Amino acid sequence: MLKMMMRNIAASSSSYCRSRRWRGMPCLHSNSTVVVFANDYFAFLHSQPSKPIKSTRTQLEQPVRNSPKITTVEDAFNVFDRMLQMRPPPSVVRFNQILGQVAKLKHYSSVISLYNQMDVSGIGPDVYTLNILINCYCHLNQMGFSLSVLGKFFKLGLEPDVFTFTTLINGFLLENRVAEAATLLHKMMRGGNCQPDVVTYGTLIKGFCMKGNNSAAIQLLRKMEEGACKPNLVAYSTIIDSLCKDTLVDDALNLFSEMMCKGIAPNVITYNSLMNGVCKLGEWKEAARLLNEMVSKNIFPDVFTFSILVDTICKEGMVVEAEGVVEMMIQRDIDPDSVTYNSLMDGYCLLGRMDKA
Fold first, then answer.
1. What is the fold, at CATH topology level, of the domain defined by 33-193?
2. Quick one: average pLDDT of 145-162?
3. Backbone angles phi, psi at 232, to 5 degrees
4. Which of these, 137, 169, 133, lies nearest to 34 by C-alpha position?
5. The pLDDT of residue 18 is above 80
6. With contact defined as beta carbons under 8 Å apart, do 303 and 337 qualify?
């Protein structure tokens, strides 16, 4: 069976394409004052000005043309200083681009400092500016300040968007405040003004899974299926991965079949999770079936797929075959990582071949 799998991989390699790994979002927690604040927010939202400034997720992600590339914090402060000295100063959109780039560098405190310079210079923020600021406070575990920025929306007559609330939900999860994250999502669902999107749902699903609460994650998935915002591959794969990590492989395979029946095509991440789950249970034949299924669908195995395979083969005592898999990886320009080599060393140790290890 192993030889058949290796032949299948080799035969189909020319038509494969690699998939990018999905980066999941972090995790959250709860505080009664936030629930009260959320109530105030939704009550206040209905009395917004008749023409609030709106922003969509797509608009927020569009790059600003002719903006300088920021690679260090020093670059950001230098560019910011020059922009503040210009008369008239550039639009807030140009400042947002700098703030966004610094946030991507994970220098969250620097973003806050730059924003304060904007504020002192009289550069008025827009929705995007405040969303960046909320995101930075969330990553600094300062949810109190994040919520105070939410209050600034109302003061300036701006309307928070789905990105605002998704960021707050993610901030609660980062502080392991899952209950408050769930409360905020439910208020969004009932509020009507700003409905959650697939990213919002996916963020909370990830939070539930990170807490090991698979049942809550599945319940949220079912709510999505009942509503207009249907679950996507990321939502399903997140729960499948969590179930496999908890060795609930049958449940994961059932969810996988359900996903396929709904026309949602799996990717290499989904298969890696399933293969890892069945290998943990020692179900070598099922792992072989999944690998062959991947190959038949032109889903190219990546370093994680091969490492799972190498580890399983080594545990079966077939270290020579495992080395063959590693050689196949190298031929296909997939570099083995420390996990791959650790599995090989462990395999040789199990056979008592310490010199080879």
1. 1.25.40
2. 93
3. -110, -175
4. 169
5. no
6. yes
